[in-house]
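Course assignment 3, question 2. Fill in each field.
Student: A.L.
Task: Predict the tertiary structure for the chain below.
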Amino acid sequence: MVDRVFQHFAKPMKNALLTTAVGSYPKPDYLVQARAKAARGELGQEELHRLERKATEHWIRLQEELGLDVLVHGEMERGDMVAHFAELMGSMKMGGLVRSYGNRYYHKPIIVDRLAWPGPMTVDMWRFAQGLTDRPVKGMLTGPYTMVEWSFDEHYPSRRDAVLDMARVIRREVEALVQAGARYIQIDEPAIHTRPEEDFDLAVEAMRVVVEGIDCEFHTHICYGEVELIYPAMLRLPVKQIHLAFKNTNFQYLRLLEQHPFDDEKDLGVGVVDVHTRFVESVEDIKEGIRRTLQVTPWERVWVLPDCGLKTRREEEAVSKLRNMVEAVRQVRREMGIA
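Answer field:
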């Protein structure tokens, strides 16, 4: 099946208000319990991996049923987006708990040695997920700037050295995903606006190290925070699509686009449902957000997504949000005569 997929998607699809998701989905109870048992040494890794793949297939099938255009594997094997990769790198160790937001915590990693690629970290799960479907599945990676910003550094003499070495590690993973057949790869950089005056040039340079010269369509997700501090400078990021959490800000980012339109070479990923609320947005509400966006950005360069990953929601909430999102896009396509 995978060979057939790659024939269809040898090049990324032409945009027609394409729908996708940001990355994570809610883990089923059986997997949450299994992960807790595995952490206590009460469950073997082989059984844990079996359950992770079972949950991954569940979400691939749901996305197909809902009608998303480009799928994600759901990150059933991951906890925190930084700690997951840090645990796989011998040059990092896990530190103590720190607050992520609300009542959610994660173990903040520590860089203790020179960063080095340990071998493929995401390829097996991506290949498994892509083998389940004819639709393209995005590769999902955390970007080098966020990996370093959300870690302690006990090895490098400067942040620049750490970030650029991390970028070289992430590039090796990108190369492995592309060799496996991935045509879309999302590089998450939610921390990119943490030090806009001090470090933004470094973040752009690091992204260039990750993607330059690689034949793949790259997307980046920048969630929440003070995006206005890095706009329009963020248009310098060498990626095809930049995704922002529009719904959570009541589409205030549209003011930025009105003042400085998106680059003609870039696509806009517009978040149309808020992942931090149980409230399920109606089809009409989502359509209104899409229409407002299309007043400032051509439909050929707009992708439609949730604001962020949906892992904090219950499955029924996540599915309802996605179902309404896809239906809203279908209706807008029909209204505009878009195939």
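Instructor remarks: DSSP finds eleven helices and ten strands in the chain. Strands lie at 18-19, 92-101, 104-111, 139-142, 152-153, 184-188, 217-222, 241-244, 267-271, 302-305.
Grade: pending
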